[in-house]
């Protein structure tokens, strides 16, 4: 029988193997692990010597898991997740303190989340928030990310998701628009600003309210809602924006909402998301419970003030 040490590879070798398998190559794995490519390659080779089985098939620069490697990687990935989860729970279980690494879309963070965070700091001073740069299509396998606020329909694999806000989309215009907007048909005569990830937003809005002669692909295009809102303030045109991102500007009179009864409900919104392996992390639980309580209070307040029914409308990829 082999000694116990022989059957238990070091964790750093297992992590290198799992990361290379996830990215399909040494280059991206080395970047994720903050190691050199040479170091990662040596760790994978050392693990293969340790187990005595080829884990990868090497075709030029591409590494493909062998049949044995595929079976082993599934088990290794699960074990690493369990180890990480247990360690995080142990570290944060004593006083509920610790760090929480999170990420959010820039506009949503600036307009909606950040103004609320002083209250979280007051209620949970033992938790330190660390913001990670936002990257589209997060891989929660990253050890540097505990949770993220994403935009979508709430369905991400191996992820828990809690809806926050963002489904209501409203028409905004400058305080003194060049064209008077009294009906949806008047929008056809305005310059319409567009978000790059929602190319069909205007066509869907116009179809919902029976507006003809709207070219959905005309008008200036932007990559962030914060920039679009500022462009509307500057008088560049009208735009469709999630209400949660622009309500403060409407209330302050910086932009107008000429047709409040003609907002629409998207089937997508902003969600707090985190992997199953982080679910027991105490700072995350505290942040989640606090954030959902904020959302519930705001939802109840909005419901009491709601005056107009809104038709449902799908706006995919509205980020």
UniProtKB/TrEMBL annotation:
<dbReference type="InterPro" id="IPR000847">
    <property type="entry name" value="LysR_HTH_N"/>
</dbReference>
<keyword id="KW-0805">Transcription regulation</keyword>
<dbReference type="GO" id="GO:0043565">
    <property type="term" value="F:sequence-specific DNA binding"/>
</dbReference>
<dbReference type="Pfam" id="PF00126">
    <property type="entry name" value="HTH_1"/>
</dbReference>
<keyword id="KW-0804">Transcription</keyword>
<protein>
    <submittedName>
        <fullName>LysR family transcriptional regulator</fullName>
    </submittedName>
</protein>
<dbReference type="InterPro" id="IPR036388">
    <property type="entry name" value="WH-like_DNA-bd_sf"/>
</dbReference>
<dbReference type="InterPro" id="IPR036390">
    <property type="entry name" value="WH_DNA-bd_sf"/>
</dbReference>
<comment type="similarity">
    <text>Belongs to the LysR transcriptional regulatory family.</text>
</comment>
<dbReference type="InterPro" id="IPR058163">
    <property type="entry name" value="LysR-type_TF_proteobact-type"/>
</dbReference>
<keyword id="KW-0238">DNA-binding</keyword>
<dbReference type="GO" id="GO:0006351">
    <property type="term" value="P:DNA-templated transcription"/>
</dbReference>
<dbReference type="GO" id="GO:0003700">
    <property type="term" value="F:DNA-binding transcription factor activity"/>
</dbReference>
<feature type="domain" description="HTH lysR-type">
    <location>
        <begin position="9"/>
        <end position="66"/>
    </location>
</feature>
<dbReference type="Pfam" id="PF03466">
    <property type="entry name" value="LysR_substrate"/>
</dbReference>
<dbReference type="InterPro" id="IPR005119">
    <property type="entry name" value="LysR_subst-bd"/>
</dbReference>
């Amino acid at each position: 029988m082999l000694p116990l040490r022989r059957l238990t590879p070091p964790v750093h070798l297992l992590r290198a193997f799992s990361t290379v398998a996830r990215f399909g190559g040494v280059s991206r794995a080395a970047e994720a692990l903050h190691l050199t490519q040479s170091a990662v390659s040596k760790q994978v080779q050392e693990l293969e010597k340790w187990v005595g089985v080829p884990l990868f098939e090497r075709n030029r620069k591409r590494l493909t898991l062998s049949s044995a490697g595929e079976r082993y990687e599934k088990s290794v990935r699960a074990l690493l997740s369990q180890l990480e989860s247990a360690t995080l729970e142990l570290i944060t279980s004593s006083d509920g303190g610790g760090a929480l690494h999170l990420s959010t879309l820039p506009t949503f963070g600036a307009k909606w989340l950040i103004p609320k965070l002083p209250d979280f700091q007051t209620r949970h001073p033992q938790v330190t928030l660390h913001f990670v740069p936002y990257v589209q299509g997060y891989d929660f396998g990253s050890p540097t990310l505990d949770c993220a606020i994403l935009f979508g329909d709430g369905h991400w694999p191996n992820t828990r998701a809690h809806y926050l806000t963002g489904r209501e989309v409203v028409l905004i215009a400058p305080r003194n628009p060049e064209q008077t907007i009294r009906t949806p048909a008047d929008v056809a005569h305005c310059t319409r600003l567009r978000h790059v990830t929602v190319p069909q937003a205007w066509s869907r809005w116009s179809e919902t309210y029976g507006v003809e002669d709207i070219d959905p692909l005309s008008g200036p295009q932007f990559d962030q809602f914060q920039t679009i809102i500022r462009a509307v303030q500057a008088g560049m045109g009208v735009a469709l924006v999630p209400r949660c991102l622009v309500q403060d500007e409407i209330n302050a009179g910086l932009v107008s909402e000429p047709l409040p009864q003609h907002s629409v409900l998207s089937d997508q919104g902003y969600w707090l998301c985190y992997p199953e392996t982080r679910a027991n992390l105490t700072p995350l639980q505290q942040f989640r419970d606090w954030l959902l309580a904020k959302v519930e209070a705001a939802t109840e307040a909005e419901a009491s003030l709601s005056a107009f029914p809104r038709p449902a409308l799908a706006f995919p990829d509205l980020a």
